[in-house]
Specification:
Layout (H helix, E strand, L loop, with lengths): L1 E4 L5 H7 L17 E4 L8 E8 L7 E9 L2 E8 L2 E7 L3 E10 L7 E8 L5 H4 E5 L2 E3 L17
Antiparallel strand pairs: 1-2, 3-8, 4-5, 5-6, 6-7, 8-9, 9-10
């Protein structure tokens, strides 16, 4: 399974901007390249949680927070033109969840949590998406995978 390893920001750059430097934190520049590595084991592809803080610098286009790829599979979590999107693609969309709410405040920090548990029988509980501790329940597309589906993560 792929793992994304970001480029680390220099502490001088952060201090010059007046921002607080938090040990172990990372800063993604708009055009930064990410390094992908491959794990030798699959792990659990039915249950996972993703969490990140995000501060947009612009809201046009797609801003990937995370993307797992394997073969023809792709499983990104991204802000797409200001809306939070989590989907899975393997040649055709298996699921696509794009929030109806826009997150376009360029001065705000957003804490994003995506919790997935494909083993649950209730389809609405298989995906739980939160922004700033508020569960997002309205999506433009509510396609969902079948129970016990294995994603690319």
């Amino acid at each position: 399974m792929p793992v994304v390893v970001p480029n680390f920001a220099s502490s001088t750059e952060d201090r010059a901007s007046g921002a607080q430097v938090i040990e172990g934190s990372v800063k993604f520049e708009n055009k930064s390249r990410l390094q992908r590595t491959t794990s030798s084991t699959d792990g659990n592809r039915r249950v996972y949680t993703f969490s990140a803080w995000y501060k947009p610098s612009e809201y046009d286009g797609s801003r990937y927070l995370f993307d797992a790829k394997g073969g023809t599979e792709e499983n990104p979590i991204a802000f797409d033109s200001g809306r939070l999107r989590h989907n899975y693609w393997n040649g055709s969309d298996v699921w696509d969840r794009t929030s109806t709410r826009y997150f376009r405040d360029l001065n705000a920090w957003y804490h994003v949590v995506v919790s997935v548990d494909m083993t649950l029988s209730n389809q609405d509980d298989r995906f739980k998406t939160y922004v700033n501790n508020e569960r997002i329940t309205d999506f433009t597309n509510t396609s969902r995978p079948s129970q016990n589906y294995e994603s690319a993560i």
